[in-house]
Specification:
- The chain is 68% helix and 9% strand.
- It has 187 residues and is mainly alpha-helical.
- The chain has one domain: Arc Repressor Mutant, subunit A (Orthogonal Bundle), CATH 1.10.10.10.
- The chain has a 3-stranded antiparallel β-sheet with strand order 1-3-2.
- Helix 2 packs across helix 6, helix 3 crosses helix 6 and helix 4 crosses helix 5.
Length: 187
């Protein structure tokens, strides 16, 4: 034992890869099965959360497409930004971002103004109407997730919060950035 606190994580990684880890090989199989069960449970939860997200967009009645909603979420979360930064956040080329902004401008959901510090650049922002769409969709998601959590046994909620918090913290510790990617997806 090295005392770094990462020994269990290294053992779990080896176990997850199907490698025997020494004299405790039968124990490692049990640990692998627990990790596999946890991964299966997380994948099921992810599918349920995606379904919640899809249903929350359904209330928009096709007035805003998923790519347009993604754009609104990025602008809402990043604030005023230029076209190139928006295109990078959405992982699209600049011409695709321009077409998206043109459609959202026509719908009154974003603004496009000349940057006073750099006249060759435009600044994009979400309008109050665009921000309202983002708020409504997020509020619908929260209501549905609240309904699901309320239906869960009380005694499991704290454990779920602890497990999900640890999952998020581990994701950050492993430097698996999720901020812009999740934001760009509109989740």
């Amino acid at each position: 034992m090295t005392g770094t606190g990462n020994d269990d994580a290294a053992g779990e990684s080896a176990d997850a890869a199907g490698q025997a880890t020494g004299p405790g090989a039968p124990a490692s199989r049990n640990r692998r099965e627990r990790v596999d069960s946890f991964v299966t449970a997380l994948l099921g939860a992810a599918r349920a959360l995606v379904a919640v997200s899809v249903r929350s967009l359904a209330e928009l009645d096709d007035s805003v497409t998923l790519p347009q909603f993604r754009t609104l979420v990025v602008l809402e979360s990043h604030g005023e930004t230029n076209l190139n930064r928006l295109a990078r956040a959405l992982d699209v080329n600049a011409s695709s971002a321009v077409r998206m902004i043109d459609r959202l401008l026509a719908a009154g959901l974003v603004t496009r103004e000349e940057n006073p510090q750099n006249r060759r650049q435009v600044l994009l922002a979400v309008t109050p109407a665009g921000a309202d769409i983002v708020r409504r969709v997020v509020a619908k998601r929260r209501r549905e997730i609240t309904r699901i959590v309320a239906a869960m046994p009380h005694e499991l909620r704290d454990e779920l919060v602890d497990a999900l918090t640890m999952f998020s913290e581990t994701t950050e510790r492993l430097h698996l950035e999720i901020g812009d990617e999740v934001s760009a997806l509109g989740w």
